[in-house]
Amino acid sequence: MSGFSRRRVVVTGMGGISPLGCEWHEIEARLRACRNAVCYMEEWSGVRGLNTRLGVPAVEFFLPPERYSRKALRGMGRVAILACRASELALADAGLLEETALLSSGRVGVSYGSSAGTQDAIADFGRLINTNEVNGLNANSYIRMMGHTAPVNIAVFFGLQGRVHTTSSACTSGSQGIGYAYETILHDHADIMIAGGAEELGVSYSAVFDTLYATSTKNDSPRLTPRPYDRDRDGLVIGEGAGTLILEEYEHAKARGAKMYAEVVGFGTNCDGTHITQPRADTMATAMRLALAAANLPPEAIAYVNGHGTATELGDIAESQAMHGVFGSAMPISSLKSYIGHTLGAAGALEAWFTIAMMRANWFAPTLNLDNVDPRCADLAYIRGEGLALECEYVMSTNFAFGGINTALIFRRLS
């Protein structure tokens, strides 16, 4: 086995399905235009008792018929289709899509997550429990419902024979997927990992947060919400999508002449251990410090932090206090959820992709709708207005989930 300290992990492919588009140039244009993708969900208008009617659907995407055969789609719900399509785009970007021998070599694996399986299949099993009838169930119902439907379908779809890590940890599914992929390559258990997360949009996910009075009810003004870190926030908006990074061992990537977008240099994850839905600033800060320690970097090396920024009161306040405790008041921070909503299992992956791309563009998007910073949020350099032009070497992306699960990823710019 190669020595732990001698292996490096780089990002050689990026791709995804997001509410802002599937190609970085169109996503960047939407970010620079400071226009989010939140919309009124007409199909939810008949749901009695639901306060929010807002969602952020992903853009439509094309499924090539020769690759997405009827047989391949039988065990896929929407969340798995999103995951496979995002991974297909990332593999193509990395120049690996047609490398079937390499993909099936046992040295390529997947580390991927979602909050759950597809909601239609879950509903089918719910009807079984309520009616004592198996109508609607078939041999693929569980495959579409299971918590590891995204990574398993990716593995089967691309013929992978390496490790499969399932990271079904709600809002940290995508970031843990990337972090565990990084550690897998670091410890020489793989040379390439398909990493990320996915989530499909459905009224049940919005209802989860609606019962906690955590969703935005600005149903008549979708462009003005969500409002991360803002004094007048009224809750989050649920989105959907999938993001995939191709992580690769540096020498392996170099030998095949692959382009390298960034290096993954640090990952930290832990849990609060006290409450399922009330986050703790001190353990959030610990996750960031764990990532810094893994990267052997001081806090001042980080030039920008992509915040989790859900636009919920407890979350915004706790994470801002955590960041201030680690970095002080000069740290630039923004929340991409103000554009694409909270994409749950996809959040950590989409936001990592966007963060790396912004670092390479020397420009970081502002938080939309941040007109008046909540005085209870810690003093930070919140990015507003037209964004921040900044050339830098290191950035951090953070996510925090129900259960008190905290993650932090550090990326290093590669020219």
Topology at a glance:
Blueprint: E1 9-17, H1 24-32, E2 39-40, E3 54-56, H2 70-73, H3 78-93, H4 100-103, E4 108-113, H5 119-131, H6 141-145, H7 149-158, E5 164-166, H8 173-186, E6 192-199, H9 203-210, E7 238-239, E8 241-249, H10 250-255, E9 262-271, H11 281-295, E10 304-306, H12 313-327, E11 332-334, H13 337-340, H14 347-361, E12 363-364, E13 381-382, E14 388-389, E15 394-401, E16 405-413
Parallel strand pairs: 3-7, 4-5, 4-6, 10-11, 10-15, 11-13
Antiparallel strand pairs: 1-8, 1-9, 2-3, 6-8, 9-16, 12-14, 15-16
What attributes does this structure have?
14 helices, globular, 415 residues, single chain, eleven-stranded mixed beta sheet, alpha/beta, Peroxisomal Thiolase, Chain A, domain 1, 16 strands
